[in-house]
Amino acid sequence: MEKHYQKMISDTRDRVVKSLQIQILDPESPRYGGFADPAGIVQAKFAIYRIASMVAAYCNEDTCFYQDGRVLSGIMTGLDYVTRVQHENGLFDYITCNFFSAPDTAFCVKKLLPVYQYLKARREGALGGALTMEENGILEKVEDIVRRGAYGLLQGGFHTPNHRWAIASVLMSCSRLFACEEMEQAAFTYLNEGIDCNEDGEFAEKSAGNYNRINNDAMILLSEATGDASYEQNALRNLRMMLTYWEPDDSVFTANSTRFDKDRLVYPKDYYMEYLKMGLKYDIPEFLQMCNTIFEIVDRRHITSPDFLIWFMLHPEYRKLEFEGSYRRPDFERFYAESGIARGQQGRFTYTVMNGKSNFLYFHNGTVKLEMKVAGSFCEHRAFRSERMERVSDREYHLSQVMRGWYYLPFAEKPPTSDWWKMDNGSRDKKSGPDMYIDVWVKEVENGLDVRVKTSGVAGAPWRIELAFSGVDFLTNDYVDLPLTGSEVVVVKQGFTQVGNGKDALVTGPCFGEHHFTEGKEDSEAKTPGAATLYLTAYTPFDREIQIRDKVSICR
Fold first, then answer.
1. Alpha carbons 507 and 134: distance in angstroms, whole number
2. Are strands 489-491 and 532-539 parallel, antiparallel or unpaired?
3. 108 conformational bin, left if phi > 0, alpha if psi -120 to 50, beta if neither
């Protein structure tokens, strides 16, 4: 992967330049040696990530910073800062939320592990070239931080599912590095809970933009440390699933995430090393092709390459490996039933159907993205969120929800207080009904989707189907022609409507508009930020089918 290596060399140089610019060099500052992140926050984790890149550049003779004195000074000053802010028990703070934090310490140690392993291998003669006195000084400081951090992890404590595997994998790896049985046993206390990766390859947090790959790293590290390949089978399943999770604009589909990456624009570059390691070990061509595709995305989107230069230095065989071809995903349809999500691709568009989400349908054709919801008010409900999702035929899905109507009844006996907020309202009897039934069918057809929405059980409720379009600047049909800024709400009463941006477009319809009740005090379901929204409105009960078609550009 010589081209990938050269790109990493170039981007590591830029990272080092940035690090030298933002390092705090005032000896009177308590943060002397640290690095200010874009928000001005200085803390250990950010410093360690910066230092790791600087060490790779300093130790690599192909970089312009090879054995550069200023970089060495920045590394040593940075490591001294990290040592000062590391607590006596070995733990670090993540100062924006977590203190004496085992999981954040695990992430810090994990970032330093390949640096430590590379320098240690050089010192022991396993990699070419003996350590210089300066490099040996770096190794001593890194080893002290890693060792203390690993012992700090013995105290444990975590918040989220992925934290367990970060802690366990670092403990297991360090148990081998430092011959510590206590660390191994501590790792097994986490692993005893069982890995939360289902048969689809999805981890509990469903975080395709971030924590899936964090978990994959942990699973691979566990296999490397223990020799037990069963751990990395979880990563293999997830990596196969992730081949279906990227979009026509090269981004990762993140709307299903339960974490901070939900709806964020994320590219798959940080999955690179996982695809490379597993593709090479298990001889999986599409994984190695995906490595090439990731670097094509890096070039196409003008983003930095993944910060993995140290891994190429630790494993010279990665640089020598050459694999031709990129991953060109064929048309597909996958139903990840346990995860409650279906993903499909036809030609240049993808679509996603999700259970339990108000934005249950996504359609993406390159530069235009459509999100669909069925919304209105019924008791405490503000939008359709399916309780059940099933595949009813090839490339067709049925989602359904029963919204239960109810009212409180007065207590049979006088309550002990007249203060509503102190009453045991949960113990009141309830009057049940009526119930509202919503059924949605999504079917893939040639060049698009047909979506049927049926409501029943309640008559006369003003509900609507919302089509939120992102990346568009015009809406037109036989009755209206509007420029769009991305914030409009439009009710179209009839005909088919085209929405696009001059490059890509979608056609949807037939439209309908029985009422103009689009916002109100009972209606709290948020509109998609930055989207132009087409409302198709009707009174319940109704049974409507909406066509969504990709309008293919002639030049594509």
1. 64
2. parallel
3. alpha
Using the predicted structure, report yes or no on whether residue 554 has a pLDDT greater than 50.
Answer: no
Cα–Cα nearest to 357, from 387, 396, 398: 387
Helix (H) or strand (E) holding 162: helix 161-177
> Could you identify the residue written with the tokens 């930095």?
304
Between CA 132 and CA 97 the distance in angstroms is 39
Distance of CA 497 to the CA centre of its chain: 33
- pLDDT score of 555 more than 70: no
Q: Please give the structure tokens belonging to residue 286.
A: 């599409």
Q: Which neighbouring-strand residues pair with 23?
A: 35
Contact 108, 45 (CB under 8 A): yes
CA distance 88 to 254: 39
Q: What is the pLDDT of residues 438-465, one digit of tens each?
A: 999 999 999 999 999 999 999 999 999 9
Radius of gyration of the chain (CA): 28
- Residue burial 374-398, b: 16+ Cβ < 10 Å; e: rest: bbbbbeebbbbbbeebeeeeebbbb
- Give SS3 for 449: strand
**Which residues are CB-contacts of 43 (< 8 A; sequence separation ≥ 6)?**
34, 37, 85, 92, 93, 94, 95, 96
Can you tell me the distance from the alpha carbon of 174 to that of 180, in angstroms, rounded to the nearest whole number?
8
Residues in a beta bridge with 440: 399, 453
Q: Which whole number is the average pLDDT over 433-438?
A: 96
Q: How far apart are CA 451 and CA 325, in angstroms?
A: 37
Kindly state the tokens that stand for 363.
């359609």
